[in-house]
């Protein structure tokens, strides 16, 4: 059961049991969600559920449509009943770092809209503090990304890199760049988010604070559930 994929698979049934007929679902992005979407499609088909999905990325929307899940735009729904997504880090207070897949802005829009937001992840994502194992993604405008990076690095111990794949800067679905910020221990996520979000050129940060209602974690010992206090 050491396989990370197996740990992720363990979390799916618990979240599938929360999906009900008539729901509008927020469907996230990433490797765990790619395992979940076919299961949602199967549920819709077997139980003849009337489900609408709002997706956090073009990639997820494409996959869901291929499997005959009805996908609608975020501006076409009044509310989202349940949002489901993975995370790059989960701290003891259910605060998250997200954005490893580059969809952090759309993820935050959808997760904040939802009546309930549930995270599914494997135990490797559980950390003592945010930034312990994963860099904080920040989505920024292309026009002044370098100036933004330098401003962020005025905070002691923070190291910023523009995200690049095969020597090409990564561009989000919104046409922006991502800055990955290595954080030293002791940075207050609330203060850091406030600092970053007010920099001209920053669209959104990968801090997801006070949004998560439940985390379903696949561990070597079985499924562990964490709830917001």
UniProtKB/TrEMBL annotation:
Lineage start: Bacteria, Bacillati, Bacillota, Bacilli, Bacillales
Family label: Belongs to the ribose 5-phosphate isomerase family.
Pfam families, sorted: Rib_5-P_isom_A
PANTHER family with a match to the protein in the record: RIBOSE-5-PHOSPHATE ISOMERASE
Annotated InterPro entries: NagB/RpiA_transferase-like (IPR037171), Ribose5P_isomerase_typA_subgr (IPR020672), Ribose5P_isomerase_type_A (IPR004788)
E.C. numbers: 5.3.1.6
Role of this protein: Catalyzes the reversible conversion of ribose-5-phosphate to ribulose 5-phosphate.
Quaternary state and interactors: Homodimer.
Catalytic activity of the protein: aldehydo-D-ribose 5-phosphate = D-ribulose 5-phosphate
Protein name as catalogued: Ribose-5-phosphate isomerase A
Keyword Isomerase annotated: yes
Enzyme kind, highest EC tier: isomerase
């Amino acid at each position: 059961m050491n396989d990370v994929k197996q740990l992720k698979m363990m979390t799916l049934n618990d979240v599938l049991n929360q999906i009900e007929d008539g729901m509008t679902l927020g469907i996230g992005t990433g490797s765990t969600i790619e395992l979940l979407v076919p299961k949602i499609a199967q549920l819709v088909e077997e139980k003849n559920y009337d489900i609408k999905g709002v997706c956090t990325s073009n990639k997820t929307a494409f996959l869901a449509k291929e499997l005959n899940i009805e996908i609608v735009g975020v501006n076409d729904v009044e509310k989202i009943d349940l949002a489901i997504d993975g995370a790059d880090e989960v701290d003891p207070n259910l605060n998250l770092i997200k954005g490893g897949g580059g969809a952090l802005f759309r993820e935050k829009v959808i997760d904040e809209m939802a009546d309930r937001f549930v995270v599914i992840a494997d135990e490797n994502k559980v950390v003592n503090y945010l930034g312990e194992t994963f860099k904080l993604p920040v989505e920024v405008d292309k026009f002044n990304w370098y100036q933004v990076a330098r401003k962020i690095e005025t905070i002691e111990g923070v190291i910023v890199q523009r995200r690049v794949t095969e020597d090409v800067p990564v561009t989000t679905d919104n046409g922006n760049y991502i800055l990955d910020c290595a954080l030293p221990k002791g940075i207050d996520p609330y203060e850091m988010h406030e600092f970053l979000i007010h920099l001209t050129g920053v669209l959104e940060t990968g801090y997801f604070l006070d949004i998560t209602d439940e985390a379903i974690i696949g561990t070597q010992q079985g499924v562990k559930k964490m709830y917001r206090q």
